[in-house]
Structures are given as structure tokens and as C-alpha cells.
Fold these 2 entries.
Entry 1:
Amino acid sequence: MPGNTFGTLFRITTFGESHGAAIGVVIDGCPAGLKADIDFIQSELDKRKPGLSTITTQRKEEDKVEILSGLFDGVTTGAPIAALIFNKDARSKDYESLKDVFRPSHADYAYQQKYGIRDYRGGGRSSARETAARVIAGAMAKQLLNTAGVEIYAFTDAIGKIKMNRDATQKELNNRFSNEVRCPDETTAALMKQEIEKAKAEGDTLGGIVCCIVRNCPSGLGQPVFDKLQADLAKAIMSIPSVHGFEYGSGFEGITRKGSENNDEFFTDEKGNVRTRTNHSGGIQGGISNGMEINFRAAFKPVSSILKPQQTINQKGEIAEVKIEGRHDPCVIPRAVIVVEAMTAIVLADHWLRMRTDKLY
Amino acid sequence: MPGNTFGTLFRITTFGESHGAAIGVVIDGCPAGLKADIDFIQSELDKRKPGLSTITTQRKEEDKVEILSGLFDGVTTGAPIAALIFNKDARSKDYESLKDVFRPSHADYAYQQKYGIRDYRGGGRSSARETAARVIAGAMAKQLLNTAGVEIYAFTDAIGKIKMNRDATQKELNNRFSNEVRCPDETTAALMKQEIEKAKAEGDTLGGIVCCIVRNCPSGLGQPVFDKLQADLAKAIMSIPSVHGFEYGSGFEGITRKGSENNDEFFTDEKGNVRTRTNHSGGIQGGISNGMEINFRAAFKPVSSILKPQQTINQKGEIAEVKIEGRHDPCVIPRAVIVVEAMTAIVLADHWLRMRTDKLY
Amino acid sequence: MPGNTFGTLFRITTFGESHGAAIGVVIDGCPAGLKADIDFIQSELDKRKPGLSTITTQRKEEDKVEILSGLFDGVTTGAPIAALIFNKDARSKDYESLKDVFRPSHADYAYQQKYGIRDYRGGGRSSARETAARVIAGAMAKQLLNTAGVEIYAFTDAIGKIKMNRDATQKELNNRFSNEVRCPDETTAALMKQEIEKAKAEGDTLGGIVCCIVRNCPSGLGQPVFDKLQADLAKAIMSIPSVHGFEYGSGFEGITRKGSENNDEFFTDEKGNVRTRTNHSGGIQGGISNGMEINFRAAFKPVSSILKPQQTINQKGEIAEVKIEGRHDPCVIPRAVIVVEAMTAIVLADHWLRMRTDKLY
Amino acid sequence: MPGNTFGTLFRITTFGESHGAAIGVVIDGCPAGLKADIDFIQSELDKRKPGLSTITTQRKEEDKVEILSGLFDGVTTGAPIAALIFNKDARSKDYESLKDVFRPSHADYAYQQKYGIRDYRGGGRSSARETAARVIAGAMAKQLLNTAGVEIYAFTDAIGKIKMNRDATQKELNNRFSNEVRCPDETTAALMKQEIEKAKAEGDTLGGIVCCIVRNCPSGLGQPVFDKLQADLAKAIMSIPSVHGFEYGSGFEGITRKGSENNDEFFTDEKGNVRTRTNHSGGIQGGISNGMEINFRAAFKPVSSILKPQQTINQKGEIAEVKIEGRHDPCVIPRAVIVVEAMTAIVLADHWLRMRTDKLY
């Protein structure tokens, strides 16, 4: 059953396995007339590229994007945009020892049950390497949204028990990729890095929270009932490997407030713009953006690929010990930040196009 | 742009406004040969019916379901099942005073911006009354899942600051609808009821958490990449009015654990079934159910319709005071529990059918 | 598996059986702000209403449309529009004798094989009565297209061996529903009527051709590759019961022309409009409307419900004779003309909305 | 707006332009466990490869398929299968002279109107070269259908005025690709070849008819109402460039028969199989396959790229003469036969999978 396509009007289909020939994406529905900046796409990919720092996997992939179709003289034509990244540093032999055992908290067992076959090399299709394809699509979505002035900022809000306990300034947001952990607060970032290095030294891993805010988003994005903006964002974000939670606006914390404390009063600002005094709605009301800042948070579990030996079973159901080799991230958050931005951009681009058919005109 | 359809193989389309002639649903894709128990559908609807207790809205709706198609001698034929509930106790005049103002934290403003027109009577399409249609569809989905033994239990886990701090027993789960707040712990339920009554007396409202667990779910549900089971569940639950957060398995809390603490080790139990010793995965790995208990939690904000006067603006952008009349729930959780179950059932039924095309056979 | 939904942005879902409680449709995606003329919808339905003349079935159905949702003060709000027709003159007992036999060239056998159960009363879901729901949706689509000036004219081009061998004038097109057979040429119409009456007297039935032309259609409708305008029109028309062929522009006849004879040369007319000297392209090039008149033809087989006794088998596979009772059309064409228009309008409305996201602006 | 995806459960997305880097396809939904024969895919591609004979275009493309994903040890894993053909012999300079004029009966003008930009090199996305990607997908669909014994035979039934006036034998069907025109009757094939050579010599082109029959198709494929098997086949076939007509079973010819002549009587054959004495239904009743042979015909217009000078307009709307250079087919039918088979296989594979959710079991 197909499950590799996302979006309705800005629609992406990804393909490829971690240790296959290539991973890639087809973007169908990008409007004609958009000047595509390939360098920008590459710079986005570079933000999730492995091997960039001591706290990420040491797999060396250049992750160079190749655009195969959909552009003419650098401009979109309305035709599908296919893009590829060839895999270069796959070391499948690292996985030979894993072909008969199910790694704890990985997709191995579930895939085997579902399909009766699995590509065990690097996790195959279940590898987070697939998200590179999403970043390509996200980079196109961002360029589309740029024409409307929409700005998307994701950043690391927590790593394990280390949390950034304040809002970021606009300048900090602009520089969010300037440190290795992608936390806008440099002091917190340093602490987070230490924490990751410590876990790595122990052969262990950490989780955390990515926060995302969207500025200058027009009102009207999202559809009533099932395709509410928060519902589509939740699906997009929850489809990223390791994400176990999503909340927007008042989120989980807001449940202890009373309605009179939580409601966002409307007013008209000095420029004549309708705004709300608080923003517990997170920029979305009735499933539809209201022009205020959209904000949400995603909880990532600690990476399942730990280097410590673990108990598990093999394909026959017998007890087995597994010791994961291969090159892995001790914490996925720093590289996931750009993936969160990409999925956010894809959802917003889709709904920005969907909005065009709302009214008679 | 269409947004009123949910699901791929078990697909529902809802329609109708709070104060229109009727609300309803078309279920397309329910397999032929299922004996449909209409009394069961009605009993599910009765669990979200307004006016049942002192802590819910006093609108009196019988919410009687009428099945128009898709059954022959009480059995599904494969044809679409259309079901209706006629609205009987709409008091649209209660809303006359609201037609020119935007209620804080409601859909009013966003709808107006999006469509240039809105049905202000009872919130029109944005009303949670729409969820009655989902309950009908959920009741059919449950009957379908029953043939595979799948059991779904949602219940109230928190109301405002009152929280049930333990797991429910199977017996408590079976009796989860026996008290008005739908909390399996009777003592906590009593406290919750008091809390709601207190808020109601103040003209205020409360939020809370609904927890849902699924037992006896086969492995293999969910699809890799975008249509992961947790992603589709998140979308389904986040599309319910007032939900601001979704988490499954280790959720937000789990981010402070290390990988070695969070991983779920596999073993084979005495019956030969593969199980995990812990279940931080929440029954889902790589986006696919692994046969363990599925569990998730949904955060509901406090109801926006408070009876206290509030500052807002009118359609001209001028400051206005709004005092909401009408009949409203001081807390939506007790009636939302069955809606969470319905959406869960719809997602699982869909993926249970999708699973049929995974393998060659 | 769902199969009762058609369209992507202007999307309809129909439901209901011939002898069930009601038939109906949900239209999702009709833009907000369209003034809906219910009388017009009813007048469209009246064009396919049974019992109108001596050459149609004598089943008496008022076919009165009831709109349940999606309108506010008579204007579309962007919410789904649900519409119903209650069945009033179903005589299910006429079908008792047919419950164990498979009528030749009907859906009986195929449905039984597919579903293991079938609603034999009046053909259940396979009845052409379902097309009344399409006419309702088509009437809304026409009103939407009216805002762009698009004009749709279907008419009877052939009944059995009687054919209208010339183009219709604009005046004749405007009056196409003025005679019972819906043929713009009154002389031919009279011959056709005789032919139908003759077949009816023999307990036999006739087929024919419906031609459809679309005037004032903007260029740009249709999508490259799979969703070409002719492909979506073909699917729409071929989904109408009894249709066995579809051709547009040069069609089947054109295969004997050479490229140099068949190509349509462009020129700019005195008003500065780009036109072609011939129109073998039928108004569609590369899958996309080019602004010229769109034209196509649909072949309808003779009605399968003949009153003569026929050989067949029963559910046990034994030879049986079947004699169809009930009330049936000796020729479906006169009532199918409006259905062809409806499906055409639905396809064009869908592509007219889809066109809005083609370009950056 | 996306339009490059076809199918619901066996779903393909194609991409690439005639003179771009590559063309390709992503197949999503092919069940796991299918042994993929890459040589077979290549042999299918070879049947539409350009430059094979004197009566096809002289463009030299090896059309070598590369599979990038979805297979593990040569077996499908349930992951999307991406396949590429790199373009090697594109001579874009042949098209320089065409960049400002609209070739008659091509997509040039319609694309320009729709998108405001077009890739004029070889027709860009509108080129029939895109169908090579469909052939790859069709080859996978055929392998899937092989597991159920389904056999698909398309062949050339007419070229211009030369028509094969009889049914083909099974042996002739098996050898349908043994001559250059793909007509099972060798004598007719020779005449057709002469006709094509004659047209080619004149710088002119021909159209024709491709007939397709499907043997051993199970009953139950197709869905009631909109996704009738004939409707999805019609869409699939009408989406192939140059196709202007589609008919199945009794088709256009059948409209002159009476119901009593056209109805197919059921009987049980000596093996206990339910069959019909005639097959005017073309193997499909009520939109669903009935187990009889499925048959349909597609009308192809003469190729629009003629070498004779033609009148047209340029992008400014001024009269211009166009003389098409480049390498073109004088008749598309011989290479289109395998494309018709591919699209047929894709539709049948899709419905064969869809059938799995029809019934409770």
C-alpha cells in the first residue's frame, strides 16, 4: 500500500534506502515560474549532512543534490521536479551481523512482520537517511513560501535534561545554525554539546525537543475539520523518525489553565492589523492560521542505536545479544532541526496553494 | 478545497453545521459482509450526547442516527453507508448577538478571513457537534475491528489540575463510561466532577487529557515514511476540536531518558509470542504496530466558550465586548472520550485494510 | 475499497441505492461565496426525472432535492454541501423474482462474485438512479462555471440507427431539452421517438450516442500526463451506466486522415484571439484546453432490462429463464443527456479550480 | 497542481522531459515478495525503443533502465521502486527554431497559456518519451499480475485505412511483437508497413487503432460507480499521447443493436465456470470484471509532427510558417502497443489489489 507520498497540491514522493543506490524525491505541484536556487537546496542539505561535527555520525556523505527534471533555464515549469542524492559511503558489511536479530526499538521486527522481508542494511527504508529527500523538497517549499514572505525557524529547545528556558531573539533565530546543536542560546548550546559528548562516550544516546516558529504566515491556511493546519503539521512532524510527541500553542501545559486564562483576546494594532494579546492558540484557530506566529514543539526520543550490548531475540524468536556497530548519531536533534523546518515548509506550501480555491473570485 | 474526508481505504466524509438541518457522514470502503449493529452505533452516540449530566451542555439533542444506505438486511454490501442526525434543538437566536464579533479563541475570525462569509449560528461547521458524525463512523470501524479482536479504550486522565496517577485495571477500563467524567478511577472521577462544577459556577471552563490504549492490535498496521501509524493517529486526534497536543509511548517525558533506558528489549513469552519488556515505543516501531499495547495521550485546551465577558473586536476591527450566551460545556473531556475512540478506530480500521496489500500472496 | 468519490478540488461523493431510503451526494470543495440557485438544481433534476413521457420508465419519483448543509443565506460557505433525494415509489416486490437469478448484461453476477452479497432490489447501487445525485452536483458545478461564462450543451446525436447528420445551431442547442428525446433537430427527434416507441412495443430496447460540446471554456484546463482533460472527461463519461465508448475531436473517424489533413493550424482572429482553422483537436491539446470548442461523443449500449424472456443461470449455476418485470426505460439516452452534462461540468469545475495553482502569482 | 501520479494502491509517479537529464518513475504500492525480473523490464522497454526500424524515429536511445530502490536481493520489499532512464541522444538544437512558434496540434500553445513558460526542447514534458516510464511501471505490474495468471495482449488493429478484419489466434497473439508494426496478421502487417513508408516518404504521418484483450482476468476487478473498470481503463488509455477514442465491448458499433441482440446470456460451461454466450459486455458488467475476456480499442490520431511546412502563429500571435525538424515517428502505433499494455497492466494491478478489501474475511 502506498505511503511514500505527502501533500495534496504541493505533493512529494520520496524513495530510496540507506544503503541502496540513491535516495530521492519527486515534487509534483510546484507552481510554474519559480526561480529555483540550487545552491540554497544544497545549503539546506548541508545542515543535516552527516559527519559535520564530533557529535554526529561519522558516515561521510557529500549529499550532493542532482535535479533531474522540472526546471527550464533554472525556473520551474509546472512539471514534476525529481531530485537525487547518490549514496557513496554505505558500509553494508557493518550490518551483516544484524540481519538475523531485531534491534530493540528499531523498525526491524515490525517490518519483518509486515512484509516477510526486510532490507537490513542500515535500516533500509526505515533509516532517517530518507529525511534528506524531505529536506530537498522542503527547500523548494521554502522558496515558494518566500514569495509570500513566510519565515520558518526551528531550533533545539532541549537535549536530554538541558533546556533553553526562554524565547529566542530574532537575531538568535537568524543565527540558529551557527552552533553544532542548533540552540539559539549559545550558553545552553555549550551545555547541550557537553551532554551529547558525555552520552557518546558512554555508548549511549539522548533525546530532546525541537521548537518551531513561523512568522509572517498569512491567515487562512488550513482547512476545517480533518485537514486542520495543526493536524497536518502533527502528521508531518510525527512522521519524522524518533518523534514521539507534538504540541502547538498552549500544548500539554495549557490544560491546567482555565478558559478565562487561556483565551486570546483580539485587538487591532496601531497598523490596523488584527492581533491577539496572548497567543495560546499558537497562531491557529478552528484549524486555520489567524496571522499570529505559529509555534509548535516536537519531542524526539533518544536514538535507538546505542553501542552498548542489548538483549533481544533473533528471527527464530530465540534470545540473542545484539551489539550495534555502524556509525550513528548520539543525538539526532542537531540534524533533525532542518528536517522539522522542511516538513513545516511542505505543509505550509501545500495549504498556501490549497487556500487559492477557497473563495469564488 | 476539500478537507472533510479522512482515511484512504476506510474513508469517511462528514458534513453539516451545528444549526443546520442535519449533520452526517458517508463511510466509503467498509467491506461487504459485516453485520451492522445499529443499536451499538446509537449507544456510542449516546456517550457524547449533550444534556446527559449537570456537567455538560444543556442543549437537548436526541442525536438519533438514521442509516440511509449501504446495508441490506442489516449487512454491509460494500456500498457507501450514509448516516444522518437531524438537528432538533438549535437555538440560533442565541447567536444573533455574535454575528458581528469574533469570539476569542474560536474559529470566527479565521473563517471570516478565509472565506469572506461564515455561518455564525453555533459556530457552523467549526462546531464540535460535527464530531457526532465521527462517532457514527467510529462505531462502524469498531465493529469492523471487532472481527479481529481489537479493543480500544479511551478515558479521562486529567481534568485541569486533577490527574489520575496510575494505570487503570482491565475492569476499570471496561467500566470507563460508568461515571460522568469517564475517569476509570472513581475517586479521581469524583474530584474531577467537583472541579468542573466549580469552574461552571464561575462561568469558566477547564481542559484536560484523554488517554487511549489499544489492546490486541495485530502487528503490521501503519506504513513506512509518511503514513506511519503514529502520524495518522496524530492527525486524526489533532483534528478533534480543542486538542493542542498528542504524544505516544515515551512522549514528551521520555526525552530525558537515555537510549539505554528507553529501548524496549524483545523477548518471547511463554506462549511463544514476541513481546517487549518495556513499552516506551507505545506499540509502534518504525511507524508500524508491533503487537504490543498502543497507547497515546491527547491534550485538550479549556473550552473557549466561557460565560464571562471578554474583550474582542467586531468585524470592522473595532473594540467590542462579547458575552457568550448559548449552552456550552464547562469541560469538553467527558464527551470527547468517545470521539477519541472513534478517530482511533477509524485510523486502525483504515490501516487494517491497508495491510491487506502489503505482501504478495 | 472506496470508489464513490470523484474529483480532486471539486469533489463529490454519492451514496444510496435504487430502492433504499434515499440517494444523495456530498460536494466538498465548492468555493465560498457562490449564490446557489436551488430552483436551478431542481430544474436540472427534472430533466432526468422518470415518468415524464411515454418513452421513459413509468416509475413515479418526484426527485425533489433537499439541501442539508453548506449554504448560509443561500450562499456557499466553503463547507460541504450535502443533498438528498428520498426514494418514494420503489416497488421492491417487483424484484423478488430476480433475487436468485443473474439478469443478462446487468451487474448482478459481477456484484455477487465481488461482494458475496448484493442488494437485488432495483439493482441496488448499480442502478442508474444513482446518476440523479450526479445531476445535483453537476448543477452546482454549472453554477460555478457560469461565473466564468462556460457553456455546456449535450444532446442526443443518435438513437439506434437514426442519426442527426449535421451540426446544431446555437438556437437549437439552447432548445435541446424542448423535445422528449433531446435531439436538437426536431425532424430527427420525431423519427427517434418513433423508433423508441417501436422498440418499447416489442419489449426491446435501444442504444445511441450523446454528443457534448463546451463553449467559452478558458484555455489551460487539464493537466499534463495522467490528468489530461480528455482522460478525466473519458473517466467521468465512461463511469455513467451503459456507456461503452468515448471519443473527442477527430475520434475514431480521424484515424484515416493523414497528419497534414488532421492538424489544426493556428491563426489570430480579428478580435486578437488565437484560434485554429479546424478543430480536430476537439479543443484539447497536450491534455489541456486551448480555448476552442471542446467536443466529445459517448456511445450508450441498448438498455439491458428488456421485457422479453431470456436464458440465464441462477445463483446455483443452473440454467434459468428470466423475465424482467419492473418499470424500465426502453432507451436511456433522453434521460442520460443531462447526466453527461453534469459529469462534464464536474470535470471542468474541478480543472478550473486546479488551474489556480498552476502558476506563481 | 499535481497530475503526474496514477493509481490508488499500485500507484506510479512519472517525471522527466524529452531533452532533460532523465525520465523516470516511482512505483509505490507494489507488494513485498515479488521477484523482479529486470531483464523483462528491459525487454518491454526495447519494444518501444526508438530507432529500431525504418518506420520509427531515428533518435538513438538505448533506453536502459536503472533501478534505484525498492528491491533487496532482487525481490520487492514494499518500499517504493524508483527507476530511471538517462537521456543520451537529445538534440535540443533541432528545437531552437521552434521556441517562438506554436506547432499545430501540439501542446506548445496550451502549455504556454497554462504555465507562462515551456520547455520547448523536444516538447518537454508533453513528449511521448514520457511513456517509457510507464512501460517500466507496466512491466512491474505485469509481473505482479502474472502471479494471478492474467494475460494482456495489445496489437495493431488498423493503420490509416488498412485494417485487420478478423480475430487473432492465440499463437498470433503470442507473436504480436514479431513484426515491426505489431499486427498479428502478417499479410496485413506488410500492407501497413508499406502505408507507413509511403506516408513517411511524403513527410506525412498516419494514425490507427490499437486493440487490447485481457485473458484469464479474475472476476471482481473494478469498483461500482466512479471507479468502474472501464472508466479507469478509459482514463489510463486516453492519457496516452495522441489517443482520441476509447471503446470496450460493443463500443460505438453496438449502439445500433437492440437490447435483445446485445445482451450476453449466462451459462455454466462443462468445467463449471460461469460464462456468457456472447461478450458484448467486453468482460465488464456494472463496472466490474465478470471473468470473460476483457477487450477494448483505442483510436490514435495521426502524429502531429509532420515534416511538411505548416501555417501557424508565433508567440506574439503573428502568422508564421513552421517546418518541424527533429526525428519523428511517421506513425506512433507500432511503439504505442506496448504502452497500451503497460497502462492496462497498471490499471488491472491496481484493481487487483483494491479487490482485497472488498469483503470481510
Entry 2:
Amino acid sequence: MFLRRAVIAAGGSAVALFAAVSVGRSEDDSDPLSAGWDSNWDSRASLAKQPGVLRYTEDKYEYHRKEDYKNKSNRHIFLIQHANYKTYTSSDKLTAEGYEQADLTGKRLATLAKGPGMAEKRQAIQFKHIIYSPQTTTKETAERISRHLPGVTMFSSDSLNEGPPIQTSQDPDWKPDLNHLETPFRKYIYRPDPEQSEDTYEIMVCHADLIRYIVCKSLQLPLKAWSRMSLYHGSVTKLVVQQDGNVRLKTLGDAGFMPHNLLTKP
Amino acid sequence: MFLRRAVIAAGGSAVALFAAVSVGRSEDDSDPLSAGWDSNWDSRASLAKQPGVLRYTEDKYEYHRKEDYKNKSNRHIFLIQHANYKTYTSSDKLTAEGYEQADLTGKRLATLAKGPGMAEKRQAIQFKHIIYSPQTTTKETAERISRHLPGVTMFSSDSLNEGPPIQTSQDPDWKPDLNHLETPFRKYIYRPDPEQSEDTYEIMVCHADLIRYIVCKSLQLPLKAWSRMSLYHGSVTKLVVQQDGNVRLKTLGDAGFMPHNLLTKP
């Protein structure tokens, strides 16, 4: 975790430092598949293009050689929509069907870990961790999932809060506040670090608002498209962030492992 | 089918006729959830807003009263990615795992038809039809699915051709040809007809290019986002087109009903 925080801390300065030589809107506008793609969406493209990479180590900034980059590794990010819960109560605990949903999601992830499959590796994979929002619904969902993935570290993150990215009421005093969505996006969604040499598999248990925000933002879609998607309880949305910065959506709201009577929506 | 074709045939003229009174870019720009949404994407918003609706019946155009519109009915469209097939052969027949995948997709759809579930009705539903591209991979996939849905009409449509919406090679002579994607979009993706009083459930078995084009186009996303999504063989992508013209993506590339060893990609 120390290295991760250090890189984040150095991010702002590094971007400023390299502003004069930063890449344009797209790395290669002659390639139609990348046209209009902002290759520097996570502020790391300029770092990757430098002969050396600025990183903060101990108490000083230093360059890492480009050779430190191990190519072809990806980050597989499984975004899990929390299970069904009791509305209109103060507890926000899962319903009986919510516990069933979370169990099925955990079983499905455990199956995938055996590979090959969604992980797209012809070998078993190990989930790196389960990060979850500390709110009751997401915490309970994560705990149920965790039972099926023994040995996988769990930790909560206060930054995974709930909240719509755009105004959904006619309240004239409403002001857009994307910070609570942009903060976890910047913290958790980024291309693999230079030293990452193998694919990683991470689970994030959070709320539909954040998942849809992450999908729109990481695919560089207009945020207004957020409300045009909806997610089943306990469903799996999977993104792959490649080391070259490209992002692929592999599935949105996959709930095909749920029997029909457990397909519920927020 | 006659009525359907008649409406399509009348579409162009109707739009021209109502051009002077057509609605703007959004029906209600004060609603942030619909801001930037082209409510007339299927050229039928202006019809819906008229006191009468122009339709072609027998040999003449005539108006239907607005009261003919039954509200709250939706079109549930299940877009099925064909199963795995033998590449580099002239036959394009499914592989052994392709047949397994198509069988599982059929079983899943049959389960959903029992409701409640993905159909979101607290009752059993009846699929209206299975439309498929006549190419071998899609035809074989549709036939396998059909075995699990006895009584559901099947028909092929030559308009469901394969082909990328944007240039994917550096061929300098390449010209964009969206017709083969736009034609099936206009033919099959539109809001419910005025006389539709109950939700309908339709299955379309086609190719990944067309499914991703339909998703981008119907959610009004930039078409360049097409290549940022990928779909598992036999997966289910579900759109709901509401009578008010709004479109919701309920799942993209759902393959959660496949065991991990059958999760393959084109």
C-alpha cells in the first residue's frame, strides 16, 4: 500500500512537470479505433512515455527506467453491485433474498477464480483483495462474498460513497458534487503500475451510482449516459485496464448466475 | 408483419410532414436526466406528440387518435451474441463448445420466460419471436436456442449482417459503410407501436459488431465507444425500449449462466 500511495502523491507534481511534453488527446489519431480516446485519462500516459518514470521513493523523487515496465499485464476489476436490502429501515441490512444473492455472487467469483474463464487466463487466478464501501448493504454483501473466497484480504474504503453524479431532483439549490465519485475513480481506476508484471484481479463492492460513473468515465462516455444503464442486485460488471491505458468493458450487470426469482433491481 | 412494414414505409414521409412542428433535441431540457437526449431518435416522437398519428393502412394514410396509445408498455429486446465457431473453415459451423454455449443460452432464456426475473414481470412471459442473421454461426445458435423455447416463431433477416461500424484496418481505400448496421437498427429498434398494450419480449441472434452498434446508437453514445466493449459467445445483452422513447441497458454481455470453461470471446 505504501508504494500505491506514494505514486498517487507524486501524480500531481509529475503531471505538472511533464506538461510541456505531455501527449495530445490521442496517442495515435491515425488509428480509427483510438481516435478521440484520451490516452492520458489517468494522468499516467506521459509518465509511461518518458525515458524514465518519476516516482516517489522514501523521501525523494527518482526516475525508474522505462525497462521497469513489464508489458502486457492488465488490471481486471470486478465491480459488484450490492445485494437487495431493506429500504425504509435505519439498518439497511440485506433482505433474505439479498443474502442469497450475495452468496451466489461469491460462488460465481470463486468459480471464475478457478479459471479459465472470465479471467481469460488458462490457469487459476488469485483475487488480490475485496474493497468495499463501509455502508451496511455493501459491507454485508462483501462479507458474504468473502466466505467463498477464503484467504482474500478485505478492506473497507470510506471513499466508496453513494450518490448520483448528476442532478436527479428539481431542488434549485442542488449543486453538482462529483468529488465523492471522482475521488474513488482516481484512487482505484488506473492503468497497471510499471512494476506490475502479471495480471491482477480485484473486487470492489459498491453502489450502482459509482459503478455506472466508473463505466462512463473509464470508457470515456458522456456522464449523462449514467442513467441509461441499470444494474441487478449482486451483479458483476467487469472492466479490464490494460498497461497501455486502454480500457475494455467485458460485461455490465452480469447476473446470469442468479435464478430468475432473485433478479431484483435497486 | 404487414403493419410493421407499413409503419416503416410511412416513417420517412411522416417525418417530412411533421418537420415544421417536430420536437427539439430533448423533450424536457429542464429534467437533467433527459438533458442531451434526442427524444426523436427513432423518428416517432413527433408522431407521438400529435393529436393524431399518421399510419398507412391498406392503400391510404390515416390518423390514429392519441387515445390509441396504450401507455407503459415496453419492448424488451434480448440481443444474443452467436456461440463459438470454427474459424478458418468455409463452413463457419459452431464448435462443440459453441453448441454447448447455445444450449445454455437457450436454457437461460427459457428460465427467464417463466418470470419473474429479467423480464421484470411478476408473471410468465411469452417470447414473441427469434430473429436471426442467416449466416451459419448465428443460424445454428438460434436453432439451438429455439429447442428450449417451443412454440416461439423463428425467422431469419438478411439485414442482420456482420461488419464493423468504423475502420479497423489501415486500408486507404476503406470507406465507412454504416448502412448494413443502420438498416437493422432502424428496422428493429424503435419504441413500441401505439397499439401495443402489453410488454413484448423479442430475441435477436446476431454478431458482436451489430450488438455493440445497437447499444451505442440506442443509448446515444459515441459510436467510437463500440470497440471499448467486448461480448462473450452466447451472451445476453438486454435493452428495454419504453413507449416514451427512453432506452435502458439492463445488461451487457451477460454470460453468468456459463461455466468458466465456456467463457470464450470472438
